[in-house]
Design a protein that fits this description.
The complex is a heterodimer of chains A (about 100) and B (about 200).
Chain A: H1 5-33, H2 39-61, H3 69-102
Helix pairs in contact in A: 1-2
Chain B: H1 17-46, H2 53-56, H3 59-84, H4 88-118, H5 127-154, H6 160-163, H7 165-195
The chains are: A mainly alpha (about 100), B mainly alpha (about 200).
């Protein structure tokens, strides 16, 4: 990532805007939690807001928005294994129903 | 021996080695925290009863820490931006600010842990607390690691600016990538543990 002083000053403005967005999202996350929604709905909403916040951090603070393809390939591979890892509890959960049904 | 491609991009990857190196490290970190998250989900969905985080933990303290950590990500990236504008003094000031915010985060965590221990709530107290202490403890160690690295870069490590300014700027950028990842992990830990 490189640029002239003017480019960097523009980046700084973007960082401040992202910071504001992250603060607003934090207020939303905490606010929603006080609504005491059903667990499934609360989980979905919380994860949506967290994903938006995480994407902002990755895209702007970690400069992924303008990163080289090698990084994206690396992250794609990581994301594939991560999805597999997250899928294991789902399989275990479904399997527990299967075992219950057989009994 | 001179280390190759510390500043210039390698022709094959299009990246300088430190940046590729930190992203490979962060990929391994995604799997480390991913495995723990996966375990947390498995334990939670398998448990007949699971407490709500907001009943067991302090949401106001965790919200304050979230703001602190996000603010520290901004100061970290501002430090890099100042180096890009050739202003070492301001860059170091932002780095020290990042370190201070990280220490504030750890002090709050210390008091949070302290209140649990005072109430006799140790990891063996419940599966929820075991998960809480494991995830936040590992994250806290990462924050401590960031404090050490950023303190070095703001302190004695800044001497590199005089001889190799671009290499020093890259070091701050790479330390920043690690720091933003620590922030990113907290962004997911906070709702998962405290708000659900």
């Amino acid at each position: 990532m490189s640029g002239s002083d003017e480019d960097i000053k523009h980046h700084i403005k973007v960082y401040i805007a992202v910071f504001t967005a992250l603060m607003v999202a934090t207020v939303i996350t905490v606010g929603v939690s006080y609504m005491r929604l059903a667990v499934l709905l609360a989980v979905i909403l919380a994860m949506i807001v967290a994903t938006v916040k995480g994407s902002l951090v990755a895209a702007y603070f970690m400069h992924l928005k303008s990163e080289k393809p090698a990084i994206f390939w690396l992250l794609l591979l990581t994301a594939s294994f991560w999805v597999l890892l997250m899928f294991i509890p789902v399989l275990m959960y479904l399997d527990s129903f299967e075992i219950g049904a057989r009994r | 021996m001179e280390i190759p491609y510390t500043v210039d991009a390698r022709p094959d990857t299009g990246l300088a080695n430190p940046k590729l190196g930190i992203w490979l490290f962060l990929a391994s970190e995604v799997m480390l925290f991913g495995a723990l998250f996966s375990t947390y989900i498995l334990l939670r969905v398998s448990a007949p009863v699971w407490p709500h985080g907001y009943e067991e933990l302090s949401v106001p303290l965790a919200t304050f820490n979230t703001v602190v950590l996000i603010a520290s990500s901004v100061t970290m990236v501002m430090s890099w931006a100042q180096l890009k504008m050739h202003n070492l003094t301001r860059a170091r000031m932002y780095l020290w600010l990042t370190v201070t915010l990280a220490l504030v985060f750890l002090v709050v965590k210390f008091f949070e842990y302290g209140s649990h221990f005072a109430a006799g709530e140790y990891p063996e107290h419940s599966t929820f607390l075991a998960v809480y202490f494991t995830l936040t403890g590992l994250h806290g160690l990462h924050v401590l690691g960031g404090v050490i690295v950023n303190s070095y870069l703001a302190g004695p490590g800044a001497a590199m600016w005089r001889t190799e300014p671009e290499r020093y700027t890259n070091r701050v950028e790479v330390a920043g990538l690690y720091w933003h990842f620590v922030d990113l992990v907290w962004i997911f830990l906070f709702p998962s543990l405290y708000l659900l």
